Amino acid sequence: MSVPFDLTCWYLNARRIAEITGATPVAPPGAPDPHTSRTAQLIQLKNAAVAWMKANGAMPLEVLLAEGKLASGAIFTHHSNFFFSGLSKVAEAQRKGKPVKRPATAYSKLDEWRPGGRLEFEFHDEHLVSDSSWHELAGQQRKFVLGLVTDIQGGTIKCAPYVIANVVNPHSRMPGDGGPWYNHLEVHVPQIDSFEKAQTIQDRLTKASLGPLKNVAEADIKAAFAEIINEPMVPKDWGGEASDLFSSRVVLDGQRISTAFLLKGPAKFHPMTAADLGKNGDQIGRLFSEPADLLILQHCNEVTVAVRKQMRAYAQQIGNPRRFCIIDGYDTLRILTAYGKCGF
Predict the structure, then answer these.
(1) Residue 292 domain boundaries
(2) For residue 251, what are the β-bridge partners?
(3) Pairing state of beta strands 75-85 and 139-153?
(4) Which of 189, 299, 295, 192 is nearest to 247 (CA)?
(5) Which of residues 163, 183, 203 is at a domain's end?
(6) Do 20 and 91 fall into the same domain?
(7) Inter-residue contact 11 to 137 (CB < 8 Å)
(8) pLDDT in tens, 273-325
(9) Cβ proximity of 106 and 163 under 8 Å
(10) Do 154 and 201 sit in the same domain of this protein?
């Protein structure tokens, strides 16, 4: 179950894209005017960039950080909130016929990866692709960036942007529809058909409600989930596994989908952080190495924002984008109660 995507570009550095993709855009024959010709060539370059990212597996910035692979010269992607400023001053200078004193700038916060960390870049108006770009690249906006790391100074990562865009669903007739990308490819428990009974548990849960989960063995959690999804093969734990349970019997949106589970159970009964997921959080990377289209992380307590962002980053690897789900203690309790497992 692949996750399709395309880009609606607001900024595209044609020279940079041509360099990495080898694309040579060609003006369409009989183009009525230079604007139409330029638009057609930008679309060719955008398509070349998308194809290049898929083929070369351009890595998310967060994955490079998590795996200690970030360095100057690395090409990366980043799909997150950005804070844009300066285009209005550029436009004002152009209206008055004055020179532009400085280009527009943007940054994205990286606090979960480096305290106080930021991704920063300048961008130049000659690479804007449409009149709408002036609005789309102003203020706080969620955008997708393909860029090149140019410098790393402490927690600040500087880059040269190649593309700034929105990720969209190519099969939608609604302009700008991001489809599953709107939620960063995250799936929630009520969307999974295999756990549909959990929606019948409407009790208001508090942190104290999680207490009974502390006494449930991880092996029992695994057996319970296997029974719920009708998976007969329950492997024994061993130190080298990438996931705790693998199945092709999970149903999402009416279709079976290959699924890998990382079941943390109650072993560390506190809100989950990256430190609870192996050295440098590498258990998430190992989970995403599985040949599954849905990756599920389960815990018997709360799950911190930093862990959710790390799951998002791995899910949004452009070469192999996949959906993910986080089942925290509250959803675990609802599922076990609804299906009468582990004494609930």
Answers:
(1) 189-339
(2) 256
(3) antiparallel
(4) 295
(5) 183
(6) yes
(7) yes
(8) 888 887 666 899 999 999 999 999 999 999 999 899 999 999 999 889 999 99
(9) no
(10) no
